[in-house]
Amino acid sequence: MSAFFLHQRPIHNPFSFSGPNPLLSRRSSSFSRPFITNMSSIFTPTALLLLLSLLIILGVFLPWAGMPDFLFSSNSNTSSQYSKWRDYTLAQAASFVAKNGTVIVCAVSHPYLPFLNNWLISIARQKHQDKVLVIAEDYATLFMVNQRWPGHAVLVPPAPDSQTAHKFGSQGFFNFTSRRPRHLLHILELGYNVMYNDVDMVWLADPFPYLQGSHDVYFTDDMAAVKPLNHSHDLPPPGKKGRPYICSCMIFLRPTSGAKLVMKKWIEELQSQPWSKAKKANDQPGFNWALNKTAGEVDLYLLPQAAFPTGGLYFKNKTWVQETKGMHVIIHNNYITGFEKKIKRFHDFGLWLVDDHALESPLGRL
């Protein structure tokens, strides 16, 4: 994103004089003595001591509090900046971040900014952070990200009302995640490849070499049962509920008619199975129904389990982790609910990076 600055040149004053001004000299001499006397009374030892104390206090506390924005920019400039990001469109944002025709997307609300930063650090280590687009689900996230990393966040109206950390299975969680296929379909229609990640993931290696071939949709199995290393890349057969159990949290799509068909079908499934107190739906069953119902028309590709394991396998099967050491690419911290529980698990496995490596994130320390 280009930054524009106003360079001011000195303005020539036609009424200025290069030589001394007699009138100014007389006025200066007449007022110099009272002025000096007043200044002497102001800078007494007591006053100087009070001034020095104030400077020490400001020097101690301001670095901790952070310098407020208004000290550096006028209210009109800040308002104009916020207005700019409020009007920023998904098409503009995708065009800005896309590299080699690809965009990496996540959707985040304000409570999950620590997870966003943790995820970004892991992506930055693989040199893919520049193609990341944060779809902000509230204005606080939109402004925070774009203030620190201009152009990398966009809000697609309307923003959900609540800014709380939604519990899995809640109506708020459904409202939040059900917007996802529309965002992805829009990006596909703009002509970009798009990778979607939940931000409770960590990259241990570059995933792009695994996106081989020219398939329409790439995805990961959400089952914890161990597969052979040479397992099939076809869509797994349906389970007891009549559909497969594919994770909707790691998807790669090419801008093909097949990928667009899956997204449209996913949207239809979510509309036909809305959240209710009796049936606490989430977005993943709809994605699986969409895959199942379009499998004969769309080129689908199941990514290798050893590289993209579900949390139910990676965090719970130590033997498997040792047997596949060095093969892991993206780790998903699922099969556990709760904000603090996810953070603790990342800590326990050495995957919580923000405490010691925040400066590696494009957002810095939040």
TrEMBL record:
Keywords assigned: Cell wall biogenesis/degradation, Glycosyltransferase, Golgi apparatus, Membrane, Signal-anchor, Transferase, Transmembrane, Transmembrane helix
PANTHER family referenced in this protein's UniProt entry, alphabetically: UDP-D-XYLOSE:L-FUCOSE ALPHA-1,3-D-XYLOSYLTRANSFERASE-RELATED
Coiled-coil ranges per UniProt: none
Single GO cellular component term: Golgi membrane
Its EC number(s): 2.4.2.-
Protein name listed in UniProt: Glycosyltransferase
Any single biological process term in GO: rhamnogalacturonan II biosynthetic process
SUPFAM superfamilies according to UniProt: Nucleotide-diphospho-sugar transferases
Domain Nucleotide-diphospho-sugar transferase stretches: 128-346
Topology relative to the membrane: Single-pass type II membrane protein
Class in the EC hierarchy, top level: transferase
Spans traversing the lipid bilayer: 42-65
Organism: Lithocarpus litseifolius
Similarity comment: family membership: Belongs to the glycosyltransferase 77 family.
Compartments reported by the entry: Golgi apparatus membrane
Pfam families (UniProt xref): Nucleotid_trans
MF annotations from Gene Ontology: UDP-xylosyltransferase activity
